[in-house]
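Recap for those who missed Tuesday's class. We walked through two folding examples back to back. For each one, the amino acid string is listed first and its predicted structure tokens come directly after. Nothing is annotated here on purpose, so try labeling regions yourself before you check the end of the notes.
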Amino acid sequence: MAETTLERAYSIGKVSEATGCKVETIRFYEQIGLLPEPERTEGKQRRYLASHIDRLRFILHARDLGFSVEAVRELLKLAADPSAPCEQADEIARAQLEAVRAKIARLTDLANELERVADGCHGGRIADCRVIEVLAEHGACSHGGARYDDGR
């Protein structure tokens, strides 16, 4: 643990507190190789450096922007070489932007459909309920029964 004697080391709890990231998620990012494993104390407790926290913040920001784990992995590789050209990072960002725009369009369609269905409901009995009718008969939706895949 020689490196940490010169630099302040943080427990996983302190890293979690500083970044707002759950302990389980920090461990997950270590397991999949996005976050390098920290040194450990003799008691096997993880000890993170400021560089771990900076990297974790980068990962969290990228994930907040919707980048996949693989895209984050690529962006981290690119970030490790500051003198490299940024075309590949730009391509990754533009692909994510297109994915977000497509999702927004799909969500807008869903909002319009839900509004149409809800506007068709005028109280009364379940037997006459437009919401229940549309949910039971998917083809009654204006989107023709197309499925929305949100990754679940």
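Example two. Treat it independently of the first, because the proteins are unrelated.
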Amino acid sequence: MTDSPTKPSTQEALIAAGLRLFGENGFAATSTRALADAAGTNVASISYHFGSKEGLRTACAETIASRIGGLFAQAGDAPLPSTPEAAMAEIDASIHAFAGMVLASPRADFIAFIMRELSDPGEVADQLFEAVFLPRHARFCALWSVITGAPAEDEEVKLLVFATIGQVLYFRIAQTFVTRRMGWDAIGADEARQIADIVISTLRARAERITP
């Protein structure tokens, strides 16, 4: 006999609803009634748990920060690797983890939320930048510096990291076209691994070209 799945708390259900509906419709177009209905609760529970709809939006951003932070916490808190090989190994692991999370995980509902916030930047976008994006981007730049000797804050290095992140995100944004062209039913763990391998091979080739 298997245990039945644990029912999410009201807070968790509201955050899940917020991530999905704010991502799909935007903050202004999402009513508290729609959020409550999606979470299977009443409208008053939003004020009870989060103070307001804006408070729920902030909680959604904090949840994203926790998910991504948890994925990369061990590497992000560690000293930088001392060798190019170790730095590339960390990049390899990070890209595979990132691809698995945004492409194959059922918890990747936060991508649409982030994209929506970036299209209308404000306090939540600032929160996501400072807590989620900047530390990981800076770490990646520093790793590339270990590999190639290029300054971590060099403009070309920062652009390279943006481009690498963008390559993975493209497969999320265009997954309908990708799966159709590739003949895949969906992008699962195996497909995400293949995508990550391609992205990493491009990085390795670039590193080999520019490393003395």
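Answers for example two:
The radius of gyration is 19 Å.
The chain has ten helices and no strands.
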